[in-house]
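[09:14] KT: can someone run the structure on this one? pasting the chain below
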Amino acid sequence: MLCAAGLILLVFAFLSLNQLLGINDDLPMWDELYHAAGLRSQVYDGSRDGTVSVHFIDVGQGDCTLIQMGSRNILIDCGEAEEYANVAGYLKSAGVTRLDSVIMSHPHSDHMGCMYRLVHRYNASEVLMPDVPEYMLPVTGSFTKLEEVVEKMKIPLTRVKEGAVTDTGGSGELEVLSPIKPYDDLNNSSLVLKYTFGEVSFLFCGDIAEEAESDLVYIGSDLSADVIKVPHHGSETSSTRPFVNAVSPVYAVFSVGEENDYGHPHDRTLKLYRNLGAEIYRTDTNGDIVFVTDGKTIDVYTEKETSADAA
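[09:31] RB: done, structure tokens below
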């Protein structure tokens, strides 16, 4: 009875807040509330002091990454609109009660479809996105709802450029490497982020393709990283050899949906990373993937033990 009463109160709380924010058309359903209450398997319990954990959350054919730095939480992308309960449930299981920074690599729905709901639910301190021309921004859907939520909650929505550094509370450095110039499509306009903690680094590439990759290599950006979130879900039009050579990753993470319609990841791309000696992880075969580092060593935890290299 008490549990039921609590859930009813939670529903009414969501109703009133959503009505206030003008998002009445997208209220959480009962199954979402149960899921978001933490009924989700836990890949890593976060019990090691002095470490940082980087979680690649399985959101099907989309991207979602959580960086936990002690009590500080940074979310990069979040998947489609229907992934809200999935992501909220994962954040709950990871002990997240507030998001310090929410970063949108670029405004395509498979990267930010449920972002406005997560920003609302976790009272985000700031939202960051690439500095792209107004004419390229969506004028309907999830992006517009995000703009409405941040305005009404008075949350800063900042467009960042190459060289910007995000506050990590002293736990390493998260730097914007790209976009280095205006591009004529949103994929190449994706934020490329490099997170460095001690001697360990991660590269988050959004959906950049050959043009943006070539520009980064040409200007001599320090792309070297132990872990790469492979660009554009491992598509054939990304992960050019000069770019991947410059990164020289030990681990390559492919964020892809099981049996997706795009054929991601492409065989050529998989072969390239394998031939360079990178250890392959995929959300479609490994589920959620967590890297834990003390700044010197890296441990990897996966939801499923399936070998991605055998997939």
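[09:33] KT: thanks! The radius of gyration is 19 Å.
[09:34] RB: yep, looked fine to me
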